Amino acid sequence: MDQTLIILKPDAVQRGLMGSVIHRIERKGLSIIAMKMAILSRAVVEAHYEMHREKPFFGSLVKFMTSGPVVLMVLQGNHAVDVCRKLIGATAGFKAEPGTIRGDYGMSAANNLIHGSDSNESAKTEIARFFKSDELLTCQPALHHWVYDTSDGKAQ
Ligand code: IDP
Ligand code: MG
Fold first, then answer.
1. pTM of the entire structure?
2. Residue 38 included in any domain
């Protein structure tokens, strides 16, 4: 099954939206296989957003992401990366569709509540940046057989 890295950004934590966002993830049927809180260091955030280093918002992005606690999660499920990007919505809250996390809870392109990996390849890199492999649960969630059709031994 696919895995993706999610970060509930400092605005989500400070605005008391952790529960609302996690509720949406659980309702969808994604499995949370790792979760922890942390205050991220400048070095880690700079590495995480390295592809945006030349953008005008890079400095403020690093400041924002280090400004308070975040929640780090690894989610697992079929097509987890794409499913999460759809749940999250477009980058700017003012453009994101209603029904998405950013569309329902945010107004800003900067303070946009949540990060989700954008490909299986970046998910792998990002998960390894924030979690040791023994922090990821390997037991099968009890709901697995209800979320998926497992009648032929595969999860569909
Ligand atoms: P994504 O989070 O939807 O993948 P990216 O384009 O990868 O969006 O940008 C990374 C993060 O940088 C965004 O989530 C947001 O916090 C911030 N950001 C992106 N575009 C802007 C902008 O135009 N102004 C301010 N911050 C931005
Ligand atoms: Mg991105």
1. 0.98
2. yes
